[in-house]
Every structure is written in C-alpha cells, then in structure tokens.
Design a protein that fits this description.
The complex is a heterodimer of chains A (123) and B (165). Chain A is mainly α and 123 residues long. Chain A folds into 2 domains: 51 residues, no CATH class; 53 residues. Chain A is built from 3 helices and no strands. Chain A is flat. Chain B is mostly helical and 165 residues long. Chain B is built from 6 helices and no strands. In chain B, helix 1 packs antiparallel against helix 2 and helix 2 packs antiparallel against helix 3. The chains are: A mainly alpha (123), B mainly alpha (165). Chains A and B meet through helix 1, helix 2 and helix 3 of A and helix 1, helix 2, helix 3, helix 5 and helix 6 of B.
Chain lengths: 123, 165
C-alpha cells in the first residue's frame, strides 16, 4: 500500500524539479551568454496574466466571505464523517443509514440557524 | 528503509516549513508556509499507515483551514505591511518555547512506548466506518461529534456576526 504513496512522493519530486527548472534554466542560459540580455518595455510587460490591475492589487475582501469559509469548514468536517459511511454503505445497512441520518440532521440544525440569522445572505 | 527515508524527508519539510512560519516577516507568506507544513504532516500520517487521517488532514487543514487563515489575513489588515512585531514579548516567548520543547522531548524520550505486534491495517477506511457507524461501533460518540460540529457552527456565527443593531 505504501508503494502507491511512494508514487505520490515521486510526483512531488517531479513537481519540485520541474518548477525549479523553469526558474533556473533561463538564469543559467543568460549566465552562459546563450540568451542575450536585452530588457525592453514589451519584453518585460506582464503578458497572459489578465488585465493590468487598476489601483492596488491587494484588496480587502468582503467580510461576508468569512461566513462561507467558516460554514464550509464545518461541512468539510461533516464529510470526513460521512465518507467512511458511504464507503461501506451496504455493509452497514439500515443501522448505519439511521446513524448517518441523525448525524446530518444534527449538523443541519446549525445551517438552519445560519439561515435564520441571515449569515448566508449577501447584502 | 524507504519508510524511514520518507519519514525523514517529511519531518525535515515539516520542521523547515514550521520555522518559516515563525521567521518570515510577511504574514501572507507564513500562511503559505503553514500549508506546506500541513502537507508534510499529512505525509507523516501516511508513513504511519493512517491513510484516512492523511486524507482528512489534506481535506480539512490544507483545503479549508488554510483558506480560512488566508481569508482572515486578507480581510483584517494591509497584507503588504507584513507581521506586526511582538518585540517586548520576544524573550518570554523564547523561554516558554524552550521549556515546552524540552518537556515534549523529555516525554517522548522517557516514555516507555509500547509497540503493538499486529501489522497496521491497510486501507483504514473500512474498519473506521465499522467503528463509526457499525452496530458494534461507537455510534454515540459519532453523534456527539455532530453536536460538536453544530456547536462550532453556532459559535462561529455568533462570534463573527456583525453587531449592527
């Protein structure tokens, strides 16, 4: 089983080498004199990065996003519980189904509360 | 052998990333270093044959908590200003950290760890599902966890709610 994860490790190493090579190769070529250093306005412009920003790039996000992040986090933890149940759905049968149903029901109370408190509303 | 190598690679990555978290000046970059630390810890879980825990770590910590941290940084302060310095606290914090590290190292080294003879389960998700939702398992504890999630949602909404009225 661990051999499968070794492949993920190999993938990470490949990613590391690839991303390092992308940065290092131009520097080395420039250093060796293969690529001439002729900086210019067009050459140094930001291309394929979308529109140039007007004003500052770091903007403050709307505070409302934070609710979504918080509620998503709770949902994420709920899915951690539901995933093993879904894996062995047939084996666990009606008992597991009832248990999972109660689990979801309890968490849904929180979402109903969020809804009632208008935490998920966009003003 | 390969396991030990993987452990050391992950451990070095985790510790290096954690050091970056506390030493970088830019708070946004510290958040990114924290994500690297989380991923390395997930790798450590895999070397411990805890594959479901590793997936949960990736999903919850890398996927959700880091987003929460980055959102909080981007909402609360000017990102370019970097970290606010805690200069008056530096020495006391160092002392507390050194004492804590010493205690932890002492406990880890001095404890008589018992190593189970049974080989680790692989994959762990099936046995976990029987323990969480099976009729022979700990269903009540699972439901109490749901109550905990509910309390977390309610607390988050109550704490984060703008006080308009």
């Amino acid at each position: 089983m661990l051999a499968g994860y070794g492949l993920i490790g190999l993938f990470f190493i490949a990613v590391l080498i690839f991303s390092l090579a992308l940065v290092v190769i131009p520097v080395v070529l420039r250093y060796l004199g293969i690529v001439p250093a002729r900086p210019g306005g067009v050459k140094q412009s930001v291309f394929e990065c979308g529109m140039e920003t007007i004003g500052r790039t770091w903007v403050q996000f709307n505070f409302r996003y934070y609710y979504y992040a918080l509620v998503f986090l709770a949902l994420d933890v709920l899915f951690i519980f539901l995933y093993p149940w879904a894996m062995k759905l047939r084996e666990l049968g009606a008992y597991g189904l009832t248990a999972a149903f109660i689990l979801v029901l309890i968490v849904i109370i929180g979402y109903v509360y969020a809804w009632k408190k208008k935490a998920l509303e966009w003003k | 052998m390969g396991l030990a190598a993987a452990f050391w690679v992950m451990a070095v990555f985790a510790v290096a990333a954690a050091l970056l978290v506390v030493s970088l000046r830019n708070i946004f970059r510290t958040a990114l270093a924290l994500i690297v630390c989380f991923i390395a810890v997930a790798g450590l879980y895999i070397t411990l044959s805890a594959d479901f825990l590793a997936a949960a770590q990736i999903l919850v910590y890398v996927g959700a908590i880091s987003v929460l941290i980055i959102l909080a940084i981007m909402m609360t302060r000017e990102v370019r200003q970097g970290n606010p310095a805690n200069r008056p606290l530096k020495l006391p914090v160092l002392a507390v950290a050194v004492v804590l590290l010493g205690l932890l190292v002492y406990v880890v080294v001095a404890s008589p760890w018992q190593v189970s003879g049974t080989p680790p389960l692989a994959p762990t998700t099936g046995p976990l599902s029987r323990l969480l939702f099976g009729s022979q398992g700990y269903v009540l504890a699972t439901e109490i966890c749901a109550v905990l999630i509910l309390a977390a949602i309610l607390g988050a909404i109550v704490l984060a709610k703008e006080k308009e009225e």
